[in-house]
Amino acid sequence: MIPLIEGSFLLHHTKNKGDVAATKAIADLTLKGYLILTPVVCEHLPFDFVAYKDNKFYRIQAKYAGDNRVVNRTIWVDKKGIHQKKYQVGDFDFYAVYLPDIDKVVYPSVNFSGCYITTKVPNSATPFYWWEDFIDFTEDASKPTYKEFGVDLTTRKVNLDSRIHTRKVERPSKAELQKLVWEKPTTQIAKDFGVSDKAVEKWCKVYGVEKPPRGYWVKKINEKI
Question: What is the pTM of this model?
Answer without folding.
Answer: 0.62
